[in-house]
Specification:
The chain is an all-alpha fold. The N and C termini lie far apart (77 Å).
Length: 195
Protein backbone atom coordinates (compact mmCIF):
# COMPACT_ATOMS: atom_id res chain seq x y z
CA UNK A 1 0.00 0.00 0.00
CA UNK A 2 1.41 3.38 -0.96
CA UNK A 3 1.89 6.14 1.55
CA UNK A 4 -0.80 8.15 -0.28
CA UNK A 5 -3.40 5.37 0.24
CA UNK A 6 -2.40 5.03 3.90
CA UNK A 7 -3.00 8.74 4.38
CA UNK A 8 -6.36 8.45 2.60
CA UNK A 9 -7.39 5.54 4.85
CA UNK A 10 -6.28 7.47 7.95
CA UNK A 11 -8.23 10.57 6.85
CA UNK A 12 -11.35 8.48 6.20
CA UNK A 13 -10.98 6.92 9.66
CA UNK A 14 -10.59 10.32 11.32
CA UNK A 15 -13.60 11.70 9.43
CA UNK A 16 -15.69 8.69 10.49
CA UNK A 17 -14.64 9.15 14.11
CA UNK A 18 -15.51 12.87 13.99
CA UNK A 19 -18.96 12.11 12.56
CA UNK A 20 -19.56 9.52 15.29
CA UNK A 21 -18.54 11.98 18.02
CA UNK A 22 -20.83 14.68 16.60
CA UNK A 23 -23.74 12.20 16.43
CA UNK A 24 -23.11 11.05 20.02
CA UNK A 25 -22.99 14.64 21.25
CA UNK A 26 -26.24 15.44 19.42
CA UNK A 27 -27.89 12.32 20.95
CA UNK A 28 -26.78 13.42 24.44
CA UNK A 29 -28.23 16.92 23.85
CA UNK A 30 -31.51 15.40 22.61
CA UNK A 31 -31.69 13.14 25.68
CA UNK A 32 -31.05 16.07 28.03
CA UNK A 33 -33.74 18.13 26.28
CA UNK A 34 -36.21 15.23 26.52
CA UNK A 35 -35.48 14.84 30.25
CA UNK A 36 -36.29 18.51 30.82
CA UNK A 37 -39.59 18.15 28.96
CA UNK A 38 -40.59 14.98 30.83
CA UNK A 39 -43.27 15.86 33.41
CA UNK A 40 -42.97 14.93 37.03
CA UNK A 41 -39.27 14.50 37.48
CA UNK A 42 -38.72 14.73 41.21
CA UNK A 43 -35.43 14.60 42.98
CA UNK A 44 -35.05 14.07 46.67
CA UNK A 45 -32.12 13.91 48.99
CA UNK A 46 -30.81 10.54 50.09
CA UNK A 47 -30.42 11.73 53.68
CA UNK A 48 -33.43 13.08 55.54
CA UNK A 49 -33.50 16.81 56.08
CA UNK A 50 -30.97 17.58 53.37
CA UNK A 51 -31.87 20.06 50.72
CA UNK A 52 -32.73 18.53 47.40
CA UNK A 53 -32.44 20.15 44.04
CA UNK A 54 -36.13 20.25 43.15
CA UNK A 55 -39.51 19.00 44.28
CA UNK A 56 -42.17 19.43 41.65
CA UNK A 57 -45.84 18.67 41.41
CA UNK A 58 -46.13 15.65 39.20
CA UNK A 59 -49.13 15.90 36.87
CA UNK A 60 -49.36 12.09 36.85
CA UNK A 61 -50.45 12.24 40.51
CA UNK A 62 -53.62 14.17 39.72
CA UNK A 63 -55.65 11.11 38.73
CA UNK A 64 -54.90 9.45 42.09
CA UNK A 65 -56.29 12.28 44.23
CA UNK A 66 -59.91 11.83 45.41
CA UNK A 67 -59.85 8.38 43.79
CA UNK A 68 -61.28 5.70 46.09
CA UNK A 69 -60.73 2.96 43.48
CA UNK A 70 -57.01 3.76 43.20
CA UNK A 71 -56.64 3.67 46.99
CA UNK A 72 -58.50 0.34 47.20
CA UNK A 73 -56.34 -1.12 44.41
CA UNK A 74 -53.28 0.25 46.21
CA UNK A 75 -54.34 -1.53 49.41
CA UNK A 76 -54.68 -4.82 47.50
CA UNK A 77 -51.27 -4.35 45.86
CA UNK A 78 -49.68 -3.31 49.18
CA UNK A 79 -50.60 -6.72 50.56
CA UNK A 80 -49.86 -8.66 47.35
CA UNK A 81 -46.35 -7.21 47.09
CA UNK A 82 -45.85 -7.88 50.82
CA UNK A 83 -45.24 -4.27 51.82
CA UNK A 84 -46.83 -5.36 55.10
CA UNK A 85 -43.81 -7.61 55.65
CA UNK A 86 -41.83 -4.51 56.68
CA UNK A 87 -44.49 -1.89 57.39
CA UNK A 88 -47.10 -4.21 58.97
CA UNK A 89 -50.63 -2.99 58.21
CA UNK A 90 -49.28 0.55 58.15
CA UNK A 91 -48.35 0.82 61.81
CA UNK A 92 -44.70 0.05 61.24
CA UNK A 93 -42.51 -2.91 62.00
CA UNK A 94 -39.06 -3.35 60.59
CA UNK A 95 -39.96 -0.43 58.28
CA UNK A 96 -41.28 2.98 59.34
CA UNK A 97 -44.80 3.65 60.56
CA UNK A 98 -46.97 4.88 57.67
CA UNK A 99 -49.88 6.06 59.80
CA UNK A 100 -48.25 8.95 61.62
CA UNK A 101 -47.33 12.40 60.33
CA UNK A 102 -43.57 11.83 60.34
CA UNK A 103 -42.22 11.26 56.85
CA UNK A 104 -38.49 10.80 56.47
CA UNK A 105 -38.34 11.39 52.72
CA UNK A 106 -41.54 13.39 52.19
CA UNK A 107 -45.20 12.57 52.71
CA UNK A 108 -46.72 14.03 49.56
CA UNK A 109 -48.12 11.55 47.05
CA UNK A 110 -45.38 12.40 44.53
CA UNK A 111 -42.65 11.96 47.16
CA UNK A 112 -44.03 8.59 48.30
CA UNK A 113 -44.15 7.47 44.66
CA UNK A 114 -40.54 8.56 44.22
CA UNK A 115 -39.54 6.59 47.32
CA UNK A 116 -41.18 3.49 45.83
CA UNK A 117 -39.45 4.05 42.48
CA UNK A 118 -35.96 4.88 43.79
CA UNK A 119 -35.87 3.09 47.14
CA UNK A 120 -34.11 4.59 50.14
CA UNK A 121 -30.93 3.77 52.05
CA UNK A 122 -31.00 1.27 54.91
CA UNK A 123 -33.74 -1.03 53.75
CA UNK A 124 -36.30 0.35 51.29
CA UNK A 125 -35.76 -1.40 47.96
CA UNK A 126 -36.24 0.28 44.61
CA UNK A 127 -39.36 -0.95 42.82
CA UNK A 128 -39.03 1.22 39.69
CA UNK A 129 -38.80 -0.98 36.61
CA UNK A 130 -39.91 -4.03 38.61
CA UNK A 131 -43.50 -3.03 39.36
CA UNK A 132 -45.63 -1.20 36.75
CA UNK A 133 -45.67 2.55 37.40
CA UNK A 134 -49.48 2.72 37.60
CA UNK A 135 -49.37 0.15 40.40
CA UNK A 136 -46.68 2.15 42.21
CA UNK A 137 -48.96 5.21 42.05
CA UNK A 138 -51.84 3.15 43.47
CA UNK A 139 -49.65 1.86 46.32
CA UNK A 140 -48.46 5.44 46.95
CA UNK A 141 -52.11 6.60 47.12
CA UNK A 142 -52.90 3.88 49.67
CA UNK A 143 -49.79 4.62 51.73
CA UNK A 144 -50.60 8.35 51.68
CA UNK A 145 -54.18 7.60 52.77
CA UNK A 146 -53.01 5.68 55.85
CA UNK A 147 -52.10 8.85 57.75
CA UNK A 148 -55.25 10.79 56.84
CA UNK A 149 -57.54 11.61 59.78
CA UNK A 150 -60.51 10.11 57.87
CA UNK A 151 -58.68 6.77 57.52
CA UNK A 152 -57.52 6.70 61.12
CA UNK A 153 -61.06 7.51 62.37
CA UNK A 154 -62.59 4.75 60.21
CA UNK A 155 -60.22 2.08 61.54
CA UNK A 156 -61.42 1.14 64.98
CA UNK A 157 -60.56 -2.57 64.80
CA UNK A 158 -57.39 -4.54 65.38
CA UNK A 159 -56.11 -4.15 61.82
CA UNK A 160 -55.45 -0.56 60.75
CA UNK A 161 -55.66 0.53 57.14
CA UNK A 162 -58.67 -1.64 56.19
CA UNK A 163 -60.90 1.37 55.44
CA UNK A 164 -58.66 3.83 53.60
CA UNK A 165 -60.04 7.22 52.61
CA UNK A 166 -59.30 8.77 49.22
CA UNK A 167 -56.47 11.30 49.29
CA UNK A 168 -57.72 14.85 48.77
CA UNK A 169 -55.39 17.14 46.83
CA UNK A 170 -55.50 19.56 49.80
CA UNK A 171 -53.79 16.90 51.95
CA UNK A 172 -50.60 17.50 49.99
CA UNK A 173 -50.59 21.31 50.25
CA UNK A 174 -47.27 21.25 52.12
CA UNK A 175 -43.63 20.59 51.30
CA UNK A 176 -43.84 17.00 52.55
CA UNK A 177 -41.19 17.08 55.23
CA UNK A 178 -40.65 18.65 58.64
CA UNK A 179 -38.19 17.76 61.41
CA UNK A 180 -39.54 15.13 63.80
CA UNK A 181 -40.82 16.39 67.18
CA UNK A 182 -38.13 16.80 69.80
CA UNK A 183 -35.43 17.38 67.21
CA UNK A 184 -32.72 19.69 68.51
CA UNK A 185 -31.88 21.06 65.07
CA UNK A 186 -34.60 23.04 63.30
CA UNK A 187 -32.79 22.43 59.97
CA UNK A 188 -33.08 26.14 59.22
CA UNK A 189 -30.30 27.66 61.28
CA UNK A 190 -26.63 26.94 61.65
CA UNK A 191 -25.47 25.64 65.00
CA UNK A 192 -21.94 25.86 66.38
CA UNK A 193 -20.19 23.21 68.34
CA UNK A 194 -18.01 23.71 71.41
CA UNK A 195 -15.03 26.04 71.03
Amino acid sequence: MSSRSRIDVALIGIAGLALTLVACHRDRDDQARAALERPGVITSALSPGEASSLVTDDPRADKYYDNAAAVADGMRLYHQYNCSGCHSAGGGGMGPDLMDKEWIYGGRLTQIHQTLVEGRPNGMPSWGGKVPDDQLWQIAAYVRSLSLPATIAANTGDTPGKNPAPVPKSADAHNGWAPPPGTTNDYGTTTEGPK
